[in-house]
Structure formats: C-alpha cells, structure tokens
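FIELD: query
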Amino acid sequence: MKKTDLRKKYKNLRLKLSKEDIEHKSLDIANNLLKLPIWEYDFYHLFLSISEQKEVDTEFVLHILQGKDKNVVVPKTDIENHKLINFLLTDSTAIKKNRWNIPEPVEGIEIPSDKIDVVFVPLLAFDKTGHRIGYGKGFYDQFLAGCKPNVIKIGLSFFEAEEKIKEKFDSDVILDYCISPSRVYSFKN
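FIELD: result
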C-alpha cells in the first residue's frame, strides 16, 4: 500500500474511535511505556496531541514524565522555515493552538535539538521494521536529523504495525520503539 493510501486508511480508523476509546487506548500506551529502559535521561521531547485529529492523548505520558521529574520539551512549528523549535515546558509556559489546531508553547526557554535524549514521535502508521508514516510534511524527519545520533525515538500508535511500508526515502528516520495499547515494538538490533 502507498503512503498516501496508508495515511487515508489510518486517518479513517482514527475517526471511528470514540472519546472513550482514545482515553483507554492512550492510558494503555502510557502504561506500556513504563516497560522501556529510558528513564535515566534528562530531556524528553513530547508532542502535544491534536484532539481534532484524534491523536494519542499524550497527557498521560506527560504525567509520567513530570512524576519522574524529567525535563519535558514541547515543539512549536515554524512553518516558514519548515522546522520545529523546542521549548522547555514549565508551570508558566502558555500553550495556544495554532491555525492547524496544534497546541504549542507561545514562548519560553528554547532547548537545542542536540540536547534532547528521548523523542516521542507522532505518526499515523508504522511497520515491523520501525518505518513510520506521519502527516507527510517531514517536520519530524528534519527535526530528528538534527538531534544527537543516539537520541531514542519512540512512536505512539493506537494501531498495530503494518507488515512493511514499501515507499521509503533516504530522509526517513527509523524509530527505536513504537508503543501500542497492546504491546511494545522494539526496532533496536
């Protein structure tokens, strides 16, 4: 199946999820996340969910990170320069939805990409080799390319892995893990 067809398929599957489905599945994903060996690091990049797109609710992940006293970094989209700018999430960080309904920090303490240890990556679909399909704009592939080489990349998905995504590009960044409500996928060799 082509990437455009997979995007359509998984957007449609998400649309069928109820608010309760999203809450339960997101909680299961957060609980499965606790099984990963990732808790000794300092800086964790977390996307803030677009509820209108029925994304995984990252509020549960945020509570885990805060409970473990981690530095949480959230992205702001720089559409003109086609990149993500990362800000430290603090008690005083104001969050506002942009014109695409993406919740973002208004301003704050900017954190360089190469300081981030763990990145939670939004996606629509992924396969058993760790390739992912996002919304197709390449923001996360570009952002991840600017991170340190050993940054840990974790996808969050309501659905299980596709067997294989056939369309791949050299700029695609492979995940280290993907968490679904029922299991943890590891792509590390």
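FIELD: remark
Residues 109 and 128 are 37 Å apart (CA to CA).
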